[in-house]
Amino acid sequence: MNIQELVQTKQCTVVDVRSPEEFQGGHVVESINIPLQDIPNHLEKLKEFKKPLILCCASGNRSGQAQRFLLAQGIECYNGGSWMDVNY
Questions:
Q1: Contact, 3 vs 11, CB < 8 A?
Q2: Which of 32, 62, 75, 76 is deepest in the core (most CB within 10 A)?
Q3: Closest Cα partner for 39 from 29, 49, 24, 30?
């Protein structure tokens, strides 16, 4: 199953790692906003979300950083790139 199918069938959790201000400007419906710098402080919360996590941001850079960190913590996740790319 690819990212689009996971998002469309709601078999994942979309986590937007942009700032709250960016998130308020537009985001994927039902996505969760946890800014990149706050990811380490929310590990337990992230472990409880439906897996896999689909991470997104403005361009894919911050979500890529979050993905590398979370994979190292054993959390199944994918870099979805820009939030507009996963806004199905």
A1: no
A2: 62
A3: 49
Kindly tell me the sign of the dihedral angle through the C-alpha atoms of 65, 27, 81, 22.
Answer: negative
Q: What is the pLDDT of residues 36-78, one digit of tens each?
A: 999 999 999 999 999 999 999 999 999 999 999 999 999 999 9
Q: Which residue has the tokens 């199905």?
A: 88
Q: Is 33 exposed, middle or buried (0-12, 13-18, 19+ CB in 10 A)?
A: middle
Count, residues in the chain: 88
- The DSSP letter of residue 29 is T
Q: Could you report the per-residue pLDDT of 28-39, keeping only the tens digit for each?
A: 999 999 999 999
Bridge partners, residue 82, by sequence: 57
1-18+44-88 is a CATH 3.40.250.10 domain? yes
Query: CA-based Rg of the chain, rounded to a whole angstrom?
Result: 11
